[in-house]
Amino acid sequence: MTGYLDRARESYDRVAEDYAEFVRPRFAADAVGRGVLGAFAELVTGPVADVGCGPGQVTAHLAGLGVDAFGVDLSPKMIAVARRTYPYLRFDVGTMTALDLPAGQLGGIVAWWSIFHVPPAVLPAVFTGFARALTPAGHVLIGFHAGNAQLQPEQAYGRPVDYDAYLLPPDHVARLLKRAGFDIVARVELDGAKHPQAILLGRKRTTRRSALPHR
Fold first, then answer.
1. pLDDT digit string, tens, across residues 115-174
2. Could you tell me the pTM of the whole model?
3. Residues 6+ apart with CB under 8 A from 64
4. Beta strands of the chain (E only): which ranges?
5. pLDDT, tens digit, for every residue of 15-34?
6. d(CA 114, CA 130)
7. How far is residue 147's CA from residue 149's CA, in Å, rounded to a whole number?
8. What is the DSSP string of 91-106?
């Protein structure tokens, strides 16, 4: 792993239990976010990867909506929490920067607040990887903290952490998704507790063959 991934993994291994206790009630109270996930669930066909799944609450919510969802996270301890909490679902250790998934097999990918630690220079390759893994007309749903800043917190969830975090301009993220081969279907912007938030729903662009010339 590169250095930023190592530091994020070690930090989330350290806070996994505390993070799970923090995030579950917040997700249960997030009516707008769950509404967007519900719309996504109606649109997708086929398996869905929840990338950066953490303790698994989004994966489980999608599964409860009838989606064939599984989770991926770089933190082994987060995955252990998810497996313990939702033993009937699949959770794998992995990273969105190198998805170990067959090309063209997924109906959807969710990255729910999980691109927070990906350096902006790496995002184009991440989104290209998402497009590669999706079926034609597959969907991607990205939730992220909006802004234009790099943060370096020393404490999170009551424990020391060592990672960089990025607030990203929604227009910029939308452009990166378009360059990776997605059309933006919907966009939601919210006032977050600490930072503004944004959600982008994209559909993989399908290429059309040009019509044959008339003879």
1. 999 999 999 999 999 999 999 999 999 999 999 999 988 888 888 888 899 999 999 999
2. 0.92
3. none
4. 48-51, 69-73, 91-93, 106-112, 134-145, 149-151, 155-156, 159-160, 165-167, 182-190, 197-204
5. 999 999 999 999 999 999 99
6. 14
7. 6
8. EEE--GGG----TT-E
